[in-house]
Amino acid sequence: GAVVSQHPSRVICKSGTSVKIECRSLDFQATTMFWYRQFPKQSLMLMATSNEGSKATYEQGVEKDKFLINHASLTLSTLTVTSAHPEDSSFYICSARGAGQNYGYTFGSGTRLTVV
Amino acid sequence: DAKTTQPPSMDCAEGRAANLPCNHSTISGNEYVYWYRQIHSQGPQYIIHGLKNNETNEMASLIITEDRKSSTLILPHATLRDTAVYYCIVSSSYGGYQKVTFGTGTKLQVIP
Lengths: 116, 112
Known about the structure:
The complex is a heterodimer.
Chain A: E1 4-7, E2 10-13, E3 19-25, E4 30-38, E5 45-51, E6 57-58, E7 67-73, E8 76-81, E9 90-98, E10 106-107, E11 111-115
Chain B: E1 9-13, E2 18-23, E3 33-38, E4 45-50, E5 55-56, E6 61-64, E7 70-75, E8 84-94, E9 97-100, E10 106-111
Parallel strand pairs in B: 1-10
Antiparallel strand pairs in B: 2-7, 3-4, 3-8, 5-6, 6-7, 8-9, 8-10
């Protein structure tokens, strides 16, 4: 089946620094990738959608300059949290969907970001 | 986007069938119903999906009402490992691609 690899699984960074999270589709080409954020005991919140080779589409209320998304290839999307602050601490999850996939969306294992 | 509503929590005895309902009364004709589950601190895991007909796979069965306004996920013999948050979602079309938004889900607790 389709596999999405997300790295790192956990990261701790200092306030004011930037963190990059990678999301790779291992056995299929992901034309579209999604990034979610999840706070404790809450549901997943869609942050942005990216199509390979084009700019990401951000959901309302998500700062595009703070959460930089790059989808430069059909197998890799990255989310960079710039100038991270403690309130950015959360669980970030990516999801991918390939062209022609008819069984839904494949999710990564998530990244636990802690900003200290 | 179509919205889904699910009960916040359910209990099920181990070995019994778990029936998880979902309402999606504003679903469009070309939208699929997907079910995922999330075990603590992991990414969501795909379970099953359907459009109109009932579906079954090795994990579960999906029953969709004729008017498509609601569905039920059935785990035929629940085990302790099925304890998780279950999300019912519908796909939506936006600008040529489909995005998925999550509701609050149902926290299923399987009891020994």
